[in-house]
Structure formats: C-alpha cells, structure tokens
Amino acid sequence: MLQKNKNSAIRRFGYIAAFSISFAVVVYAGDIRPSVEVEFNMFYNRNYPQPLSFQFREAKLFLDANISDHATAMIEYTMKDNLVRSQLERAYFIQHDLPLNSQLTLGQFRNPFGYFDPFTVSHSTTKSTALTPDSLMPKFMLRDLDVGLYWESNGEAITFGFGVTNGNGINDLKDDNNFKDIVGHAVYSFGELQIGLNGYYGKKNSMLTGEVVNSYSSVEVTAAGVEAMAYIGEATIAWEALVRNYGTLHSAGSYVTMNYDLSSILPTLRATSRVEVFDPNRTVLNDESIQWAQGFLYTLSRGYLAKLEVVLNLENLHRRANEVFFELEYEL
Amino acid sequence: MKLSLSTILLFGCILLQQALYAQDQLPEKVHTSIDKILDDHLAEIENTIIQENEFETKTVLLVTVPLENFIEDVLFTINRPAVIYPKILYKVIRDQFRQGKSREEIERLLVTMQKQNKFEKLYVAEKQK
Question: Chain A contact for B76, CB < 8 A?
C-alpha cells in the first residue's frame, strides 16, 4: 500500500515536472508570447439603477506564437459578463507565404465577411471591447466565430479569399448538417482607397419550416455586402452595406464609421463617429432603426485608457434608449 | 559587506530590466492579432529608445500610440494579423528624434510609413544587404 502511494506520488511529481518543463520550453524557448488582458473599470451609465459602479468587465488570456517566419498560431480564451461566462474564442494556425502570396488559416476564427472590429456594427466604436451594447444590426452569423478553413491571397492591389466552415458557430461538436457554409471576400485597392465585395451561402437547420415543426428541415442563408475604406488625412473612414436572406426573412443594413486622430489637440486623443441604419424585415414598413454613436478615447499611459461614448437613437421608436458611457479602463 | 536577499533581488530586477530593454533584444518581425501584444511590443520599442539614448522620457513615451491605433483600426478590422518590424521601428524613431523632429511630426510619419508599407520595404532591403 505504502509502495503504491509512493509510486503514485512519484508519477504525480513526474507529470508536474514534465508539464513545468514543457511550459517553460514553450514560453521561453520559442517566440511564443502569453498575454493577459483584464479590463477593470470605473463605469458610468446613467440608465443603470446604480449609474456609478466598479466592475471587472472582461478578462482575456492569449497565447500568440510566431512559430517561424512562415507560420503563426493564436489561442484566445475570454471570460465575459463579470467573468462568469467563459469560452474559447479564436484558436487557429496560419501558414503564411503560400503560392500566390497567400495564407491558409485552420481552426476557429471569425468569418471573413466584411469588417468586424472595431468598425463592425456589433463592436465598440472605440478601442478594445465594446462599451455600447450590441448595436442595431444583428451579427447574422456572417462574421461570428466558426470552425473551418480560410484561404486568402494578398496581392499589391487585389486581395481575395474564401472560407469553408461548419456554419454552426464555435466548436461545440454540434454541426447539425453536412452542408458547409461558404464565405467569399475580395478587395481592390486604389492607393489609399479600398473597395470590397462579400458573399455568404449556407444552410441552417431550423425547427420551423413555414408553420410546420420539423427537426430535419433547413433554411437557406444567403448574404451579399459591399465595403469601402479610405484614409483621408488623419482620418480612416469605413463604410459597409449588406443584405441577408434567412429563409423568408429579408434584412438589410448599412453604416459608416470615421476614426480620427486628434493628437494635434492632445497627444494620444482620438475620436470615432458612426452612423448606422438597420431594417430587420424589409417586408415590414417603418421598422428601420437609425443610430449615431460618438466616442472619444484617451490613452493616459500604457494600459490606462479613458473612454467616453454617447449613443443616440435618432428615430422615434428607440429614442428613449439613448445612452452615455464613461469608462476608465486598465489593462494588465 | 552583508547583502540581504531583498537587496540581491532588487539588483537582479534592475539588471533584468536593463537586459530587457536592449536594441539587440528586439525581434526583427512580429505577427500578431492581439492588441495587447501589439501594445507590449510598441511599449518595448519606446522603452528601448529611452534607455539607449539621451531623449526625454516624456517626449518618447506613447509616441507610437497613433500608429498602434491605425494598425488596430485597419488590420484588425479586416481580420488580418498585423506585422510589425520592431528593429526597423526602433531605428526610424531614434533617427527622427536625433534629427530634431517634433513628436507630432514623428507620430504622423509613422502612420504614413505604415500606410505606404515602408517598414516592410526597409526590412526587405536590410535582409538583402
């Protein structure tokens, strides 16, 4: 019995030692960089019952690896909602410098449909993660996290790529149909102006087809989008418009965002403005939403940021939901 | 002379800090999709410039923030890893300060060079030497 316990202890010690050595080798011998980003805030939102609060808003753990000149990998684990809900976010390997100046991404990544962060309608107007709640346009599952392959060629003037994914979001091993979703993306650059096209085709299983509940039915999802980005002086402007058909539901939306550097007024100060229009159902009249968001970001020091965001709903339907956010953020 | 453990540790930390911020320690090329890691690399470049040159800390610190914001705006938006060249960046910023350029001019220059892909061109030229 004593011998058995001794062997077990030795084995346990062996595992711990092996793990520690492997960890040390991975972290220090290669160009692999672990990183922790914890956002601690003093937060003001006049719409909340207690407008002034402190909170840990989010914690992210990263492992970013420059494996060689031709290969990189990344793992991102996020704890959200006051650190209660956590999940593996991006986790992928990229092989660079393939023929046609291309790269291949394998793993779990954001679908390459249009722009996403921070110009996306579903993210913040200012740096890092969103202060504002999800904005008007739903994500449409067009640029959510998904699992699959993505190949992209980056030329001097033309960039194009396509991805094949499960179409079911994060890697939960619940791919509910054999049809894989396809995402395509192409961009042409005219100096400091880039114009791009996006396409999406997939099938989602649905419990409801018309009025009939049927667990084996599927609905077709198609989407098309155009995008443009320009650098004008100290400003970067991005515009995007998209339409999506989810079975019989037809939606459309568009936004324009401008980020501008105000260092000439105050070092490290920058501002961002976004106007967004969203029509959730094109067959219903007068259900459109229009939103304007204005944000300011000031970097006090490395890791210390001050943010101010104002979100105004311009049409009558949501006007009472206007919001003001102020946040002091510290990133470890 | 007796040295306490804390004194030895303190000296150790100072030496480690000195070793951390050396031009030779800067990587040549970095791919990253993480804003925090981009931030860390740019901070390291600024700290190395401060440590190895006679420039005022206040002038150099955060000089790369507009560049960082631009990279995050554009590259992370279009879902592509950022590639930075820390050694090249170090040399460009150091040389600009040595030429007496103002902080604002340097900030603007870094963004312009990034837009025109000039850091990569300098990196390729150095590699071919």
Answer: yes
Q: Which residues lie across from A94 on neighbouring strands? A: A72, A105
**Cβ-nearest to B77 among A64, A109, A117:** A117
Asked if residue A6 belongs to a domain, the reply is yes
CB pairs under 8 A between A and B: 97
The pTM of the full predicted model, rounded to 2 decimals, is 0.77
- B10 in contact with A at a CB cutoff of 8 Å? no
Q: Who among B39, B104, B115 is closest to A231 (CB)?
A: B115
CA dihedral B73, B77, B82, B86 (to 10 degrees): 10
Phi, psi of B7 (to 5 degrees): -65, -45
Q: How many distinct structural domains can be found in chain A?
A: 1
pLDDT of residue A9: 62
Count of residues in chain A: 332
Q: Which of B26, B31, B42, B114 has the highest number of chain A CBs within 10 A, making it the mutation to test binding with A?
A: B31
**DSSP 8-state secondary structure symbol assigned to residue B23:** G
Q: What is the domain range of residue B49?
A: 5-128
Below-50 pLDDT ranges, chain A: 22, 25, 28-29, 118-136
Q: Which of A35, A115, A236 comes nearest B34 by C-beta?
A: A35
Distance CA A98, CA A93 (A): 14
**pLDDT computed for residue B60 by the predictor:** 93
Residue reference for tokens 């793993």: A107
Angstroms from A136 CA to nearest CA on chain B: 18
Inter-chain CB proximity B33 and A268 less than 8 Å? no
- Whether the bond into A118 is cis, omega within 30 of 0: yes
Rounded Cα gap, residues A252 and A256, in angstroms: 14
pLDDT tens, position by position, A113-152: 887 654 333 344 444 433 333 444 555 567 778 889 999 9
Number of separate domains in chain B: 1
Task: Please list the alpha-helical segments (H only) found in chain A.
Answer: 2-24
The answer to whether the complex's ipTM is over 0.90 is no
Taking CA B73 as the corner, what is the angle to CA B67 and CA B79, rounded to the nearest 5 degrees? Answer: 120
Distance CA A85, CA A206 (A): 26
Containing structural domain, residue A132: 2-25+38-331
Is B36 a residue whose pLDDT tops 50?
yes
B45-97 pLDDT per residue, tens: 999 999 998 888 989 999 999 999 888 877 766 667 788 999 999 999 999 99
